[in-house]
UniProtKB/TrEMBL annotation:
Pfam hit, one: ADH_N_2
Domain Oxidoreductase N-terminal: 10-129
GO molecular function term, any single one: 2-alkenal reductase [NAD(P)H] activity
Protein name per Swiss-Prot or TrEMBL: 2-alkenal reductase (Nadp(+)-dependent)
Keyword line: Oxidoreductase
Domain of life: Eukaryota
C-alpha cells in the first residue's frame, strides 16, 4: 500500500531516565518527525491516528534505567507494542490510549474503526506486527460513552479493578474489602463496584513517588 507524501508526526520522547519524580526535563517533544502514511504489503499492520493517551501508574517503572532488561533481539526491535518493557532512552513513550484506524492491512481492523490498547505518544503510530494488544470499540455512541472513557474507567485501570474485585477477591455480601492502589482510576472503580454490591471498601492510596 503506497501513500503520497508524508504526514507530520509530533512525538513525545524519553530524553533521560527518570530517577525520582518525573520532570519536564526528562522528556522532549519532537515536532519535526514525519511519517509515510503507508503499510508494507503482506503484513497484518495498522496505522493509527491517536486521539487520547492514558498515564498509568506502571509508566513510572518503565521510565527507569533498565537497559539490561532487553534481550539482544529487543535492543534492535522497532515495535511499539513491547508495552510491558521499560522504555529505552531516545524512544517514543508508549502506553494505553484510544485511536482511530487510519490505514490497515489487518483483516480484524478496518479504516475508520475506533480502537483502544497500546500505542505511542505521537500523532500517528504504525504497529507493524499483528496488533495483539488492540481492542476494537464496538457500537460506539458518543452521546452515551465518550471515547476518553477508554483511557480510564473502560480502559486498563478499570479493567484491572473489575477483575481484581469480582474474580480474584470474590467478596461475599457485606464483606469488607481492603485495597491498596497507586491509581485513582483503579480506586474509583473499586469504590463504585463495592457501592453497587453493598461491600465495605477500606483502602489506601500509594503515596510513593
Amino acid at each position: 500500500m503506497e501513500g503520497k507524501g508524508t504526514l507530520r508526526n509530533k512525538q513525545v520522547v524519553l530524553k533521560q531516565y527518570v530517577k525520582e519524580f518525573p520532570t519536564e526535563a526528562d522528556f522532549y517533544v519532537n515536532p519535526n518527525s514525519r511519517i509515510i502514511p503507508s503499510i508494507p504489503d503482506g503484513t497484518k499492520a495498522v496505522l493509527l491516528k491517536n486521539l487520547y493517551l492514558a498515564v498509568d501508574a506502571d509508566l513510572r517503572r518503565r521510565l527507569s534505567n533498565s537497559e539490561d532488561y532487553y534481550s539482544e533481539e529487543d535492543q534492535h526491535a522497532d515495535n511499539i507494542q513491547l508495552q510491558l518493557h521499560p522504555i529505552k532512552r531516545g524512544s517514543v513513550i508508549s502506553g494505553y490510549g484510544v485511536a482511530k484506524v487510519f490505514k490497515s492491512t489487518n483483516p480484524n481492523f478496518r479504516e475508520g474503526d475506533y480502537v483502544w490498547g497500546v500505542t505511542g505518544w505521537e500523532e500517528y503510530t504504525l504497529i507493524k506486527d499483528d496488533p495483539q494488544f488492540l481492542r476494537k470499540i464496538n457500537r460506539f455512541d458518543d452521546t452515551v460513552l465518550k471515547l476518553s472513557y477508554y483511557t480510564g474507567l473502560l480502559g486498563i485501570g478499570g479493567y484491572e479493578a473489575y477483575l481484581g474485585i469480582s474474580y480474584v477477591a470474590e467478596p461475599k455480601q457485606r464483606a469488607v474489602c481492603v485495597y491498596l492502589s497507586c491509581s485513582r482510576r483503579c480506586w474509583s472503580t473499586c469504590w463504585t463496584i463495592c457501592q453497587i454490591s453493598e461491600w465495605l471498601l477500606r483502602g489506601w492510596k500509594c503515596k510513593h513517588r
